[in-house]
Write a structure and sequence with these properties.
Number of helices: 25
Shape: globular
Strand content: 15-25%
Largest sheet: 10 strands, mixed
Distance between the termini: 59 Å
Helix content: 25-40%
Number of strands: 28
Structural class: alpha+beta
Length: 931
Amino acid sequence: MARRSLVTVLVAAIAGSLLIAPGAGAQDVAPPEDHCRDQCHDILPPGQNGNATFAELVSHMLLGTRPKHSDDQLGKYGSLAGGYEELTTGTIREFFNDHSFGVKPEDVERTYQPRADVTVVRDKTAGVPHVYGETRSGTTFGAGFTTAEDKLFLMDALRHAGRGEVTPFAGGAPANRELEQSFFSVAPYTEQELQDQIDRVAAQGERGRIALQDAQSYVDGINAYVQQAHRGRYFPGEYVATGHVDPVTNRGTIAPFELTDLVVLASLVGAQFGGGGGGEVQNAVARMSLHERFGPERGEQIWAAFRAENDPEAISTIHDGRSFPYGNAPANPTGVAMPDPGSVREQQLVFDPTGSAAEPDEPPSRRVVDPQDPLRGMFDDGVLPADMAERRGMSNALVVSGEHTESGNPVAVFGPQTGYFSPQLLTLQELQGPGISSKGASFAGLSFYTLLGRGQDYSWSATTASQDMIDTYAVELCSPYGGPVTTESNSYLFRGECLPMQTIERRNSWEPNLGDDTPEGSYRLVSFRTRYGPVTHRATVDGKPVAYTTARSTFLHEVDSIIGFQQFNDPSAVRSARDFQHAAHDINYTFNWFYADSRDTAYFNSGANVVRRPDVDPSMPIVSDPAHDWPGWDPETNTATYQTFDQHPNSLNQDYYISWNNKQAPGTAGDRAEKNAVQRGDLLDRRVREQIESGDDFSRAELVRAMADAGVTDLRAERVLPDLLRVVGEPDERTKPLVDELRAWLDDGGKRVETEPGSKRYAHAEAIELLDAWWPLLVRGQFEPAVGAPAYRAMTSMMQINESPSGWQNGEPGLHVGQGHQGSSFQFGWYGPVSKDLRAVLGENVPGGFGAPLCGGGDPAACRQMLLDTLAQAAEVPSEETYPGDGDCDPGDQWCADAIVHNEVGGIQQDPTTWQNRPTYQQVVEFPEHR
């Protein structure tokens, strides 16, 4: 777009924005009876409104103004970190919004009808749409219309990300390229495969037929808003920044949504939050390196302790004595396809790069707004975070049965940690219509049903479970014409035939636009697919070339879960805790589901849990042959034999449930190594368990306080620092002041909290910085000398040593691993291995431990000296190295390094808020009555 005078463009944009018509002739509506009786609350920062017109974007860039309802939940949310200790049942509304059905007359902001059979009421408090449909179609149409009103550009960016086509949509920024490559590699579908998934669900009886109709009405609602907003010139201004629409002439296109876009969005959400497994190649490399260092017997002992498949010290959500075996390695596995040492390489994904795609990426810098051209370069660092495709095992839940509450009714505080975005990935809504009665949160673009929220007399939520439903198979490569076979060969053996790999391509090209100055470029993304899934690595096994593939049980089944979510929203389908569990069983992604009504609580672990052969080790690469395939596997449809309802971890009315992505139940193996002896779920479990054991019943306020207290506590301080200090004992003269600082912080709770709300400085800031700098030094000093540098590197590649709030200190000093400013912290890390080994050094009997201690070669004095030396070394690390700074923070700014920063998916920035480790969307519920 040729540059024009900012004044000229703004005048046209403002004139267009005045054409917004909220609708007229809306009728009075009434929600069904609400059995929560003002005892349900929720919160979702930063605000419901995620759409800003071009004029509003320019005003924000120049003046700092924000559209209405774009940030009005952030203050309440952020204030809990400094105010939770004084929270009472009477002050919950200072930190959460009312989660009742309907809108009180004094809280009605506007009422309108997107279509004759649906009425929408927006509330003043947060701008949340309350959708009342006379027909079922009108209800889901209204859901689509209102979601597009609030999150259109976000939805558009996400559907392009899920297809691996961000760069043609938004520009060639390096972050856009990284993002589209990541998502494409996980779900490389053809358009026909996307449609086939819709058709399969639609064929699943009456509920499938209804689901298709609901989804189509939802898409129709989205597209109705797209047409109106484009014609009325009140569409999101990001379409101007990305070159899709001219702000003066209004020429351009906002592409309509299609049903297949919902499949893409479902695959994107599933990849981030609902998967489990994979990483078997990295596991194999780490395991082999330990065997090479120590020999098979001792190496396997160390591997087993580190892998923590069924760590006897790990806490479980189910603690009633029952066991639910799944995903465990057999004693004598067969068909393990270990790569030859040094032979593994990642599968190439990018081909034929031209222009900027072939040039080295420049590191992003802090953007400076040009007053004459304020939108120029707003997406130079990407329209979405580059690492958004990384699997995120987040979310927490605390549910206490009525036996242990003041009211005698169950109390729940729960929600998903989905990261922090502006606008948020989740959107709030109330849906009332024939067969639908719900209120809560859904992912934008999938909100024809409420995914997490409440019904008329019950509420539900989920945490990421990550049991292992992804396997790695080694397919032997071949030549169809009898020529030489190498790791570059693109044919493979399948049941006696040499088949060509299927290739799925994206040909992406881009040019500079207003928002992204990246020079033009292009490349091809190519996924090589086998019947066992996409190829991730090439290697040799016993000298034979192989391709390692990812076999995911939800591949080609991204929208199967729609049936379960439909039932969650249907008051006739969920009348009891057991009904809810059976509905959750219809969800094929790996989630821990929690439920509470006025009488009962429930837990169910969902997922397409494939049944495996008894001699298969799912944590290692597997030979691809019928003897080791999933029983009942049909490669055409990717269906197999799955665990039955009763085999899934499930429970009714346990005394309490907690989940922070910890182990589901005894016997259920974690897909990765983090479900070990020290896991962040410990922070919740201790607080709830100790209060119940003391005989003190819970109120809603007390359960919120337990959650919030855990959410500002450093897991390492509470669970590992005591072990470190016991080994240190009486420090030497040079480290005594340092140890005293750490002990004072520990005595004060080991929390990362401000000296007072808004101070932007931590209490015990020096001790916190000391532990942050010490952790990578002590972990390396504890393990690398014992296991050797190659094994240590392989094990850190398998699992990072830490997950700090800032994203730093997670590997070698100065190495940034993971996303900073994400709030969610301390899930992944070597907290259990460090604790187990230190306790062994102290002479304790450690269940599931390493056997002989590793620290200091097993010598307590040598281990102690290492800790003292690395502690002294940590004290000399400059703050600018511990907290190196980024586009949001200056080097050395500890508070800012930890702070929650909302990733912009558009042009509206949010102010950083102090760190807390809690759900992004959170409910506080206590139903006093039942239907």
